[in-house]
Write a structure and sequence with these properties.
Layout (H helix, E strand, L loop, with lengths): L10 H23 L1 H31 L6 E3 L5 E3 L9 H7 L6 E4 L8 E6 L9 E5 L4 E5 L4
Antiparallel strand pairs: 1-2, 3-4, 4-5, 5-6
């Protein structure tokens, strides 16, 4: 007896595989559509974390030096940072010296000497103006706003 054995897939099997792949793609696609917004939020939070770290580094260096009247310190990487005497909180000029500049955000005010706050506003065309990081010189507080990013 000679039996012919066919190899391969039937048309029905191929159609079912295509349908299943289509269903999987349709359920996975919405998870990837909003990645731009998530990336912008992550960028704003990363900058906020960098500013908070800069404040902590400046204050810990200030305390380690033990000079309560000093108005500037030099960090371990050689950066000279202007600080407030008695607290070690970086001034507006000092915090901008510690946070690396980027074309992704603009720093205001333009004149930092004597400024009460420093604001980093993201300049990407798709990023709303509400995506900001604000540093308050008097307290060293950092507020990150990601509403609407």
């Amino acid at each position: 007896m000679n039996h012919n054995k066919q190899q391969g897939f039937t048309l029905i099997e191929l159609v079912m595989v295509i349908v299943i792949l289509g269903i999987l793609a349709a359920t996975a696609l919405p998870k990837f559509v909003n990645l731009g917004s998530q990336a912008r939020v992550a960028s704003v939070k990363a900058l906020g974390g960098a500013v908070q770290s800069a404040v902590a580094i400046a204050q810990s260096t200030y305390m380690a030096l033990g000079t309560p009247a000093a108005t500037s310190i030099t960090t371990s990487d050689g950066t000279t940072v202007a600080v407030t005497a008695a607290t070690g909180i970086p001034t507006a000029v000092g915090i901008v010296a510690m946070v690396p500049a980027s074309s992704d955000y603009a720093t205001t005010p333009a004149t930092l000497t004597g400024a009460a706050t420093v604001t980093w506003t993201f300049t990407l065309s798709t990023t709303p103006a509400t995506c900001t990081v604000v540093y308050t010189v008097a307290t060293g507080a950092v507020v990150t706003t990601t509403t609407g990013c």
